[in-house]
Here is the input.
Amino acid sequence: MLLLLTGCGSSMQSTVPQEWSMSTEDVDAVRATPTGEIVARQQKDAWVMDDTGQLIYDAREKKGLGGMLKQSFKESTTFAGFSLADFDGEQLTTVAMPSSNVLMVFDNREGSDEIRSVDLRDGSVLWETSEFDWSLSEQKAIGDAATKRLAAALSDENTTVEGGELFNRYAQSLAAEVPAIDGVLIKVNNGLVLTDPSTGDIRWRADGVTGTGIAAVHYLPEQDELLLATDQTDLAQWSEDAQRVIRLDATSGDVVWSSPYGARVAPPVRGIRVFDDAVMIDMDTGGTEAYRLSDGSQLFKSSATTRSTDRMATALGGESTIGGRLTASAAVHDGTAYVPHTTNFKAVGRPDKMIQAYDLATGEMTWESEPIEEAVDVRGLRFVDGRLVAHIVKDSAGGDQVVASWDASTGELAWTRGLSSGHVLLTSATVHAVTDSSHSTIDLDTGEFGDVTNLGQKSLGNALAAMPAGDGLAVLRESGITWMSADGTVSESMNLGGTIVRGLYPSEERVGDRLFVPVSTKRIGSAVTEVHVIDMAERTERAIIRNLSFSSNGSTVSTNFPFGFFVTNNGASLYVLDKDDRVVYYRIPDGAVATPAP
Here is the structure.
């Protein structure tokens, strides 16, 4: 597996081999970190390799197994399948802290709650402590009892229900890095601790902070304070006085205020945004929670997903409206938040979508739009040249779509434009509509289509997605990329020599100006999967990496290799799962353009 590279401005060719590869014999799961390390797991044990393939930390040393793997792995074997619970179990959990260059290890294998900080540069243990209780054993026991009481109340029989299924500790919920103050927050039982990642010095402990994990954290530099959203994954924490959104002094840990609102069961949180006196917590599902920064009172809460009790009816309709990473977050403009909202739940079929406008100063809803019937998801919501515009899909495959615009002050619908298929890109100045083979803009005053431009080069196939590229856009097609100016003029195209691999969600990943695209192609009569690394600014290929695996194992080998590769070091390198189910590390060269090896 080689990269044959041609230097820019030179005919000189050089062969760049893989940096290193890792055998997976007796390995249940692997996970890459953003800084290039690999964390491998076998049952209750774990070890860490750096980006040169050297073993830097071995959690098996307590069992006398240290020193067994002091070299790069070379053999290839088949990965064993695993579940999320296998990797993120209570007994051994690791959390990478890229800015601090440490790996936090939470170890409960011997029955005590140990925490260790491992230097990712050399594998040395910087500090360790067993001072804090962090495992969920106590909460699990309380939850078991509560679940049994609930079951007994709902049944005439003496029903026994185990509550263990209610608890799931996610790795990233245990600790959160706060680079601005060079600290790591650790969620311990009934408390929160701020530590120095290098020394383990405890700067403060805030007792009474409820929740089982950290959903999101945001630093306020002017106030030197922290905003924290917690997870509640057990019944014991679902009380009216639970601290679910908290404002703390970053120096002392003193709680400025806490809010009992916003109960969440470990949903993916995109982040926390602050606008004057409003704090907005954005969910991956498109939902939004808003609080007053001054006192923590809740301004509003809006959901873009279905309620759990309505999901069966939704399922009967054949579509999902639960939302995901493609769902749009709220748009904020001139002190008003515009949020997607699900409404009109039905016995059978999909509910409707609408847009709600909230005054961020008062929390009052100033208007809500007329429902858009049976919509699956709001994929785009932003102000385009001063107009509020949304892109809404009405089936999960994107075959029925609507672009709509409202008067931002009144909520009156200005226009709607339906698309039977295609892709929509909302930029700050333009609404782009791309069909399988053409491009058009949508007039912001009337909603009418503008001039239609053919994408050209039919050999590149139909359009798959549209994305920003400089002042214009790039259209990802079945076999390549077409670049266009802001007015829709085709500037150039690139043929990737195969078919882009795509599922329900996009498989490509963009990091800065680099786009990583998996491509399936035929070489000497057999199908080969490659990753093409495209420099979007220079419109050149930096590398082609071959022989990836997209077998049934490919999506279950690791929690962060969903499409067979993981980008590290801000796009400078990546790990791939090759056709022999090895983890292979590549460093992408600068100033070189890859050409296919013979």
About this structure: The chain has a mean pLDDT of 76. The first strand starts at residue 2 and ends at 7. The chain is about 5% helix and 45% strand. The CA atoms of residues 384 and 415 lie 14 Å apart.
